[in-house]
């Protein structure tokens, strides 16, 4: 089967019951995406498919042939991604286990809010633009858990990069 992962075309042969997360980690040597709960509850396995965030532990790899998959390794292809740099500067990680998922999720979330996609806490659904308030950020990142409680640094890192990209 043929995949496009981090901009590279990759052939892989595996059991069709394999999750996308297991394909990345166990078959393709991309261990950046983490297996936290393996049941869709923690966000540690978040990757981007055509720029949208998905939980790779809940995805069957065969469904994603021909789609553009980006993992945390791909975000750092030509130097650190601004969010990776910002997580470092704001101490957005402690053990770092959740960090790849947090960063992939934040990359997609920033694009979602720029496209005007509302969240559960968006007050005005007809507004032309949505501000990334503290509540919006918390709601939109709520699928990514950090057991160390590095949330303050994570929020600061995302807030800073969002502000830079919308200047
Ligand atoms: S490992 Fe996928 S959501 Fe937890
Ligand atoms: S930094 Fe450890 S779980 Fe988030």
TrEMBL record:
SUPFAM superfamilies documented for this protein: 2Fe-2S ferredoxin-like, CO dehydrogenase ISP C-domain like
Molecular function terms from GO: 2 iron, 2 sulfur cluster binding; metal ion binding; oxidoreductase activity, acting on the aldehyde or oxo group of donors
Highest taxon of source: Bacteria
Domain 2Fe-2S ferredoxin-type positions: 1-75
Entry keywords, A to Z: 2Fe-2S, Iron, Iron-sulfur, Metal-binding, Oxidoreductase
InterPro entries given in the database record: 2Fe-2S-bd, 2Fe-2S-bd_dom_sf, 2Fe-2S_ferredoxin-like_sf, 2Fe-2S_ferredoxin-type, 2Fe2S_fd_BS, Aldehyde_Oxdr_Iron-Sulfur, Beta-grasp_dom_sf
Protein name per Swiss-Prot or TrEMBL: 2Fe-2S iron-sulfur cluster-binding protein
